[in-house]
Amino acid sequence: MSSTTTVETISKPNIGVFTNPEHKLWVEESKPNLDSVKKGKGEDLPEGWVTVAIKSTGICGSDIHFWHAGAIGPMVVTDNHILGHESAGVVLATHPSVTHLQPGDRVAIEPGLICNNCEQCLTGRYNGCEKMKFLSTPPIDGLLRRYVNHPAIWCHKIGSMTYENGALLEPLSVALAGMERSGVSLGDSVLICGAGPIGLITLLCCQAAGACPIVITDVDEGRLQYAAKLCPRAKTYKVNTTLQPADCANEIIAAANGIKPAVALECTGVESSVANAIYSVKFGGKVFVIGVGKPNMSVPFMRLSTQEIDLQFQYRYCNTWPRAIRLVQDGVIDMKQLVTHRFDIEDAVKAFETSGDVKSGAIKVMIQNEIDC
What we know:
Number of strands: 20
Low-confidence stretches: 1-8
Radius of gyration: 21 Å
Structural class: alpha/beta
Largest sheet: 7 strands, mixed
């Protein structure tokens, strides 16, 4: 049986944050429309689906890229397109088939919709689903709206966790997937390339995992100072872009008191940074690339070969949300300091301009929905 609890108070129309092939960015009305949300009739939803009022959404680097470049690899913006995939909110209505959620539940939204039939889905690596529909990746509209309909199975209860922390579970999931597949463990020497949001959350994860020493690199001194505040025992290194990778690696190793990294977690996807990581790790080490780069790049093959370095890559995540929720609820990972700016959804254009401006000092920009529910 569906519930109408809280939905009668809904009064604001649904709006979304759009971009298009002309790289415009704007806010306008979107689906589901206000009338369907106000009815609160779960029977009108697809089986297994719920309606969620989005309360907090983080701006991801991929959102900025889709806006500015119009594409990431083969994923191209070809029409008006809604951005956003880091979101949390409150359930407004449920289809009668949904039994584990009810109106009023606070949830974080996992944004990938899978087929449940392909080999990747059936073996538990659903991030490689052959028919994946990932919200905010063209042509699938994203979560930067007031209200969305979503499968209940991908709406994870967060209890009393703040909506902001709930939204940050998505980038935390990216970091957790990298930690698991790279095999970072207690006492490992680790290099983190990039002090953006993913690099900083990865830093928090490495700190919690007992990695030492930890070196984090970036080209921006301000971000490195931020990293030092988050993890005082981490060593920071400002990348000298005039140096060759081998020379840069020597300085990175020196920052770790001569200890070569066993694992490098590359969070930028930048070709020169990947090369720096490859020259930095020890014989038999691993370079694990979390960041997204250009479609084709060159790597120092012989360095990889003669040093038996494993080069691995990551595509999104799978089976991470329950673990991420526990880590935040128990205080193992504290991401509050990452949020530097907050905007109402009506001011989303300003939020994106701030997030995309390196001079703004922004780390994680959040868009909030103050709706009456």
